[in-house]
Amino acid sequence: METIPCLILFSSLQILAFSSASPEHTLGTGSFLSVEEYEKPFLISPSNTFSFGFYETGDNAFSLSIWFTNTVEKTVVWAANSESPVNGHGSKLSFTQEGSLVLSDEKGFVVWDSKTMLGQDSRVALLDTGNLVITDSKGSVVWQSFDSPTDTLLPLQLLTKDKRLVSGYYSLYYGTDNVLRLIYNGPEISSPYWPNPSESIFDSGRTNYNSSRIGVLDNTGHFTSSDGLNIIASDSGLGINRRLTIDQDGNLRLYSLNKVEKSWIVTWEAMPQHCDVHGLCGRNSICEYSPGPRCSCLPGYEMADLENWSKGCQPMFTNNYGQAIGQVIFVEMRHVEFYGYDTGFNISVSLEDCEEFCSQQRSCVAYSYHAGSGYCYTKGMLYNGRKTQSITGSTYFKLPKTCNISEVKQHGLTCRHSHSTYEMHRQHGKWLYFYTCAAIFGGLELFFTTTACLFLRSKQNIPKSVMDGYELMTEHFRKFSYRELKEATGNFKEELGRGGSGVVYRGVLDRKKVVTVKRLTNATEAEEEFQSEISVIGRINHVNLVRTWGYCSEGKHKLLVYDYVENESLDKHLFESIDAKKLLRWNQRFTIALGTARGLAYLHHECLEWVVHCDVKPENILLTQDFEVKIADFGLAKLSKRDCSCLQLSHMRGTVGYMAPEWALNLPINAKVDVFSYGIVLLEIVMGARISSQTTTEGEKLDLTQIVEALKQVVACGDVTHIVDAKLHGQFNHLQAMEMVKISLSCIGERTKRPTMDEITKALMACGDEDKYADCTE
Ligand SMILES: *[C@@H]1O[C@H](CO)[C@@H](O)[C@H](O)[C@H]1NC(C)=O
Ligand SMILES: *[C@@H]1O[C@H](CO)[C@@H](O)[C@H](O)[C@H]1NC(C)=O
Ligand SMILES: *[C@@H]1O[C@H](CO)[C@@H](O)[C@H](O)[C@H]1NC(C)=O
Ligand SMILES: *[C@@H]1O[C@H](CO)[C@@H](O)[C@H](O)[C@H]1NC(C)=O
Ligand SMILES: *[C@@H]1O[C@H](CO)[C@@H](O)[C@H](O)[C@H]1NC(C)=O
Ligand SMILES: CC(=O)N[C@H]1CO[C@H](CO)[C@@H](O)[C@@H]1O
């Protein structure tokens, strides 16, 4: 008797499910779709251009996606859960009674959720733009798929500050310098490749002064960006379905839909020369055209993983040739070049000298040489290798003398002195197409020439300044006239110090307030750029950062006015303190370490605009009378053109300074460089000595890897005694010192594993309190 109502209920549910699954443009709460009915979209757009529902990504694997309805192969433009597809049985999409769009898997667990909770009257709709929207009872859009793009940007969808297009290891987004870039973010390296990183931003037709960071593709096939980038589809005009997609191969392409063939045509692409995309072939390998791009290993190297080029190649010899000079040979490959990771650079040297530099350097694995100019680059690591006839130089690889050259020759190798080029035979199985989609390739050559023209056209002049300065930004931040500051400093009489960004003078404002006035050297002349950076600095206010009172900008005269900090910078106390009075006691050191971490954490995480200091070192850590930390010189990186583009040549590498290795390489500069520098400073606080002055017992300079090894041993043995500053005579807190060493180790290690300043602050605070030492030891 009791089963009957149950059956009725069951069958009515079936009816409900069926009706909700028939495609609509807009649905109310309570609608749902089971994965088993994936062939029916959940929603279609009014003109049927787009569909939304379950998309089969693999065998029995589904993702919640939006795709073009009328293409031969479904072209997905958005996916909710591409990282974690759901099972083809039992998974379900529902627009809940609460007003959230929820995807649950076969066990009923929520895999993805729009988290809207707008109540019964909300609706979900798929618009003709391809935008999936959830509206509240008043009809206003509260959530939209356009806000969280995956690998595709559709016309009228805004690409803004915090959004990125991502495909595998490749992504497109606005950097902190306001420039829209393509970046390879792999497991081993991270490397921007578009716009061309060996050109200046301006030479690439971009600008970095406009901080709106916004880009949009319009309905005519025009993509415009606040950094000056202008892309025009080769078939520009109305009435065509388009998409801008970052493809699996790291290239950014603009596509148009051919409505007859229902297929896509490339109408623009960022990288006409495919091998210029970074990270394609992994370490120790090169990309070349034959005629499509292919990867191959270097002489003496073999593929690390036969299935996967992203793992690159590994040496077939043991890598200890650095030990004995004269025990190496060099093998030449013509027309080959590697981007980044230079350990040194020299102009106008002979081939012999260049080879000598590389032989002498333990870290050098190869060198590139251009016979005409005498350009010599020594290489520490071999990434982003490519071979094309347009490269005039050669790269010479270091191999141990003990390597059996005749064996290497069998692979088509010869030594440099025989003047033949390297050729690797295909039958050795070292070749592999990494790019199989021939259909797209066919289209590429057609567009090559149009693209080149578009690039030339897109260069544009920087508009003249329209804003004449922010007169009064905040209550305490103001513009000074040059005369005022000249008076305040007594015509720049008392010099307090000088550094990379400028000279610092003592000054007195209104006859009583002591300030420091910094005269910026090589500050940007561009008024707008200066104003926009200065307004960021003016808004920064934190107890561990030096307060900025104002600035002056009159033509060449660019000055900043800061608080005066009484006691000198940290380096004076740490490294030059012969007299016991100046010696920092342990608890003072710990407080300084924590204060510095807090100041940087504020810059990195809490500011209105995200600021990377770029020059963290003891000289920039000032101390008040009470030995409270005031970090100086932040926000200047951009003002003084001290940004990465000026520092790509790696003069600073080799000696251990405060600069993270990526400065010398061609990685994007982000907060991780500050974390690295902080790690060095932290170690110096513990040791009371410059890391760069550390030597072995034989007086040989230690390099970073050796220091890291030594620290690892200290941590493994659990005894910091012999590295803590001897001047403290054992008066220190063992647990705190150990924690500091551990933090330092993680900071100077591999860049993707470095902690954030926030995490460091928390870790230090956990050992700051005497009662909580237990937290320190983990
Ligand atoms: C910055 O870019 C935006 C968007 O492209 C534009 O509207 C704005 O005028 C630009 N600002 C300046 C100062 O050029
Ligand atoms: C190749 O290796 C990388 C890690 O180095 C891995 O993430 C990726 O999934 C691998 N690809 C294939 C096809 O195995
Ligand atoms: C360049 O080479 C010369 C000698 O040929 C050497 O004195 C100089 O230090 C080198 N410069 C760099 C930056 O390595
Ligand atoms: C080098 O390799 C060749 C060919 O494999 C072999 O005949 C020769 O004996 C090897 N020489 C040495 C010193 O191992
Ligand atoms: C400033 O620019 C001049 C000339 O362009 C250059 O010689 C000097 O090294 C630069 N100074 C700094 C600190 O970058
Ligand atoms: C080491 C040092 O410079 N200490 C000074 C810190 O500031 C106070 C007050 O200005 C001085 O008395 C100390 O000599």
Automatic annotation (TrEMBL):
Transmembrane segments: none annotated. It is a single-pass type I membrane protein. GO terms for biological process: recognition of pollen; response to other organism. It comes from the Eukaryota. SMART domains: B_lectin, S_TKc. Its EC number is 2.7.11.1. It is found in: Membrane. Residues 18-147 form the Bulb-type lectin domain. Its main location: membrane. It catalyses: L-threonyl-[protein] + ATP = O-phospho-L-threonyl-[protein] + ADP + H(+); L-seryl-[protein] + ATP = O-phospho-L-seryl-[protein] + ADP + H(+). GO terms for molecular function: ATP binding; protein serine kinase activity; protein serine/threonine kinase activity. Keywords: ATP-binding, Disulfide bond, EGF-like domain, Glycoprotein, Kinase, Membrane, Nucleotide-binding, Receptor, Serine/threonine-protein kinase, Signal, Transferase, Transmembrane, Transmembrane helix. Residues 1-21 form the signal peptide. It is an enzyme of class 2 (transferase). One of its GO terms (cellular component) is membrane. Residues 313-403 form the Apple domain. Residues 490-774 form the Protein kinase domain. Gene3D superfamilies: Bulb-type lectin domain, Hepatocyte Growth Factor, Phosphorylase Kinase, domain 1, Transferase(Phosphotransferase) domain 1. Belongs to the protein kinase superfamily. Ser/Thr protein kinase family. This is Receptor-like serine/threonine-protein kinase. It comes from Oryza sativa subsp. indica (Rice).
